[in-house]
Amino acid sequence: MSQILTLFRIIGAFVISVIRETGRIGVFLAEAVFWIPFPPYLFGRVIKQIYFIGVKTTLVILLTGTFTGMVLALQIYFTLSEFGAESRLGPIVALSLIKELGPVICALMVTGRAGSALAAEIGIMRITEQIDALDTMALNPYKYLIVPNLIAGIISLPLLNFIFVFVGVWGGYAVGIGLMGLSSGTYFGGIKDFVDSADILEGLYKSLSFGILITWISCYKGYFTGYGAEGVSKSTTQAVVLSSVTILIWDYFLTSILVA
Amino acid sequence: MIEVINLHKSFNGQEVLRGINLKVNDGQTLALIGGSGKGKSVLLKHIIGLLKPDSGKILINNEDISKLRGLKLKRLKERFGMVFQGGALFDSLTVFENVAFPLREKTRMKVSQIRETVFEELAEVGLSGAENKYPSEISGGMKKRVALARCLVMNPEIILFDEPTTGLDPLTGKAIHKMIRSCQKSYKFTAVMVTHEIPDIFSLVDRVAMLYNGSILAEGTPEEIQDSKDPVIHQFIHGELEGPLSIR
């Protein structure tokens, strides 16, 4: 009997901790969003963070986008050739990139490069009392640290996604036309026929929401970091893991909503 | 005037502050002494509104800081400055930028005025010439002086010092204490200082309060504290290993 009670106690404690954490992270986002319309408007910090989250991730996006498009074309070409449908290579590569792979891989790359760095930077500011120092100067830490990152994430992710899809389509082109001998007209003609604005909007909604998710979770983990170097290290790892998992789960639900 | 009334605070079920009562008059400097990890910094963070009490009041000129929200809290905080244990300087900014930060963010001063004020403050704390260095490039003592300059630049009515000389050699520590005292005389701010620098601190402050078991065991002039017959105070200020205080 006591073992059953212990089991219930453990499950109960786990459920309560999940609910508490969910509540805290929700309140954190609500507070950050609440402060967006109020001055001071820190345009300089937003631009700095766009540079940090967006511009500095561009090279990674160029590389991963190109090779994702190339490998996609290679895999799909051989499958399509079994049915004599090679002409569909262009639209399949483009749609996969626009609707799914572009936003998701892009978000995972930003999480790995910028999300971890955000959590570490804010975490170090927390343990060295720099956030408290802001507070004692009567400056709102949310306004100075969280809001610029959220806005930068919302702006950067769709732009990075656009770059990813663009180079990915050209990567597919290089394989399809350069290696497999398809005609350029077939490749781009198919894309023109099959890709419409709804597909592009789907990718845009996804990358926008991923931009919020990454900066929200990473900033939260850094803001409420544990003690010392170990605390920051844990927060950084948790920020990457939680962001990555959330991106994939949210991707499924958002896709379900958009498809419906 | 700062007045703490029956302040209680617990963390994870452990009661750190158990009914603190303390008063600091305008223009006075109060040293807060007591064992490590006994809640002195926690008390400071309550006074400046970084932590909310479980119960009790913290009155700053008769306004309870723990009850204030929004703009009222912001206005009250603007009258404060705090020098943190490690300085809490923004590590991505230079010394100049750190001191200029509150002026840039909170005033409408012109760039030239900011520049002039920052240079004046840095000269006041003996740091002329270190403007372009980053916090990682300067010593612990310099960091504390930059933190003091960053506080003074806004001319606050109250400054809280969290162990301003911890980790410094005795000479630098004394120099920092002397500098705080001289700044206090010229700027006339009220100061609360958490410190372990006994007996040096007795010649620098107006009042001393000792925190023990989560409450104020004694409060008085440095002479009164030094002459106290209380065995706990006697053991603590003389650094004796034998006595009612246990070392954990």
Produce a short descriptive summary.
The complex is a heterodimer of chains A (260) and B (248). Chain A is mostly helical.
Structure description:
The complex is a heterodimer of chains A (260) and B (248). By secondary structure, chain A is mainly α. Chain A is built from 9 helices and no strands. Chain A has helices at 2-35, 43-53, 58-82, 89-127, 130-136, 141-179, 184-194, 197-223, 228-259. In chain A, helix 3 (58-82) packs antiparallel against helix 4. Chain A is globular. Chain A starts with a helix and ends with a helix. Chain B has 248 residues and is α/β, with parallel strands linked by helices. Chain B has a domain at 86-155. Chain B has helices at residues 40-47, 70-77, 95-106, 111-124, 140-152, 170-187, 222-226, 231-238; strands spanning 2-11, 14-24, 29-34, 55-60, 63-64, 80-83, 158-162, 190-194, 207-212, 215-220. In chain B, strand 1 and strand 2 (14-24) form a beta hairpin. In chain B, helix 4 (111-124) crosses helix 5. The mean pLDDT of chain B is 87.
Rg from alpha-carbon coordinates of chain A = 22 Å
Number of helices of chain A: 9
Biggest interface, residues from each chain:
A-B, 12 and 23 residues
Structural class of chain B: alpha/beta
Radius of gyration of chain B: 18 Å
Please provide the ordered H/E string of secondary-structure elements of chain A.
HHHHHHHHH
The topology string of helices and strands of chain B comes to EEEHEEHEHHHEHEEEHH
Largest sheet of chain B: 6 strands, mixed
Cα end-to-end separation of chain B: 35 Å
* SS field, number of helical segments of chain B: 8
How much beta of chain A, percentage-wise?
A: under 5%
Shape of chain B: globular
Question: What count of domains describes the coordinates of chain A?
Answer: 1
Largest sheet of chain A: none
The mean pLDDT of chain B is: 87
Strand content of chain B: 15-25%
